[in-house]
Write a structure and sequence with these properties.
Alpha-Beta Plaits; two-stranded antiparallel sheet; elongated; about 110 residues; 2 domains; alpha+beta
């Protein structure tokens, strides 16, 4: 979640969703782990099921319910953003790194030995 979100609201929403799912056990009770990331606040929901055969479908049901609950609560899930500056390597940069020497067979450039 973004650093601008209310972490208590996120935690409460996650717990409410887990507690509302009939396949999630009450003992042990669902819990939420909260940690600081480089660019985000990270949450993990832990919920347990009695029937291991329902584990996968319960996880999927919880994910859909979480998305719905976040939308209803106005909690946005941020997209990862990366700033990238393309490097500008042209022939001049290549020649300056290789000192402009050609291989003896005429195929491309070679670096000077030091």
């Amino acid at each position: 979640m973004s650093y601008g979100c209310d972490p208590r609201k996120v935690r409460a929403t996650l717990l409410k969703v887990a507690q509302a799912n009939p396949d999630v056990t009450t003992t042990p009770a669902p819990s939420v782990d909260f940690d600081f990331g480089a660019d985000t606040l990270n949450f993990k929901l832990y919920a347990f099921v009695d029937d291991l055969n329902k584990g996968g479908s319960t996880s999927t049901d919880l994910r859909f319910a979480i998305l719905d609950a976040f939308n209803e609560a106005g909690i946005a899930i941020p997209f990862r953003q990366t700033d990238a500056t393309p490097a500008k390597y042209g022939l001049v940069a290549l020649m300056s790194r290789t000192r402009g020497r050609r291989r003896s067979d005429g195929e491309g450039m070679v670096k000077n030995e030091r």
